[in-house]
Amino acid sequence: MKRVALALLGPTASGKSRLALDLARSYPLEIVGVDSGQVYRGMDIGTAKPSVAERAQASHHLIDLVDPGERYSAGRFREDALGTVEGILRRGRIPLLVGGTMLYYRALADGLDRLPQADAKVRAQIAAEAAQRGWAALHAELAAVDPAAARRIPPADAQRIQRALEVWRLTGRPISELQRGAGSAPPFELRAFALLPPDRAALHARIAERFDGMLRAGLVDEVNRLRKEYALTADLPSMRCVGYRQVWRYLERQCTESEMRDAAIAATRQLAKRQLTWLRGLPGIEPVPRLEPALRAALE
Which of 8, 159, 182, 298 has the smallest number of Cβ neighbours within 10 A? Predict the structure, then answer.
């Protein structure tokens, strides 16, 4: 059997997980998550994590790896994904990477230069500057030293602005340069397919419907429980995930329930837009209709 791993990428709410499960019923697949939210334990509803029943239908990997009070990086994902894929290939099965965290996929496909570890002192300094001057001012500072990163990072994305400036201050090199990778391809063939919704309005409707379903399923209670169980702060990567960030503000009484819902849906739409932009810029992406023939070829 060829050493081939397949990747099914797409924006949030596009139906990737459902398609992956459908394929797993017909092919010897094991699903490898490419999702920066599903790596956190206890964050089940807001990340649309596979249910117990769905995990019983097909093997799932790279979910529930760390507590929400911890940090998880693209570099760590690459190491975990390489080991997981190798294990699946040794079992004579086909790895299917599924998700929408494009930075994780790029880390696996292209490799990353070793980024510096988080530095609490530098992060605190940047956060203090943001409190005094605002994140828009720090975004302008980032644009001066790393225009490529500033074009990619929205002015309101505090987490990524902070990380980009942190890397610049620690290394004197732009994070966009480091993220171009060291040209380290994975030790297996990686073929990627994009699930690109043809109707943007329909995608937006699914995003709203899905978030309303998360609220009905108990997302607010989930975030409240996590806040009690772990020593969390609003600036942790886990609590900056779309949906969790807005519910956190609601629990802090910084917005009404209606405002929380509207803000979460709007943020999810913006996330989907960024994911589509990433996908269109990735080389070698194949259209979904060719996915099943590719799987058959991999089985030969």
Answer: 182
The DSSP string of 149-174 is HHHHS-TT-HHHHHHHHHHHHHHSS-
Question: Kind and range of the H or E element at 211?
Answer: helix 200-217
Asked if 190 and 292 sit in the same domain, the reply is yes
Rg value, the chain, Cα: 19
pLDDT at 138: 94
pLDDT for 286 equals 74
Dihedral sign from CA coordinates of 183, 117, 73, 152: negative
Distance set, CA 176 to CA 74, 112, 134, 180, 206 (Å): 14, 11, 22, 6, 32
Number of domains in the chain: 3
Choice among 17-21, 85-89, 117-121, 211-215 with the minimum mean pLDDT: 117-121
- The more confidently predicted of residues 114 and 242 is 242
Cβ contacts of residue 272 below 8 Å, gap of 6+? 11, 12, 13, 14, 203, 207
pTM for this entry: 0.80
For residues 5 and 97, the answer to whether their CB atoms sit within 8 Å is yes
Contact 57, 24 (CB under 8 A): yes
d(CA 5, CA 190): 5
94 and 126, same domain (yes or no) = no
* pLDDT reported for residue 218: 98
For residue 143, the one-letter residue type is A
Same domain, 170 and 214: no
Q: Which CATH number goes with the domain that contains 136? A: 1.10.20.140
Place of tokens 């190798």: 86
**Average confidence (pLDDT) over 58-86:** 95
Count of Cβ atoms closer than 10 Å to residue 140 Cβ: 13
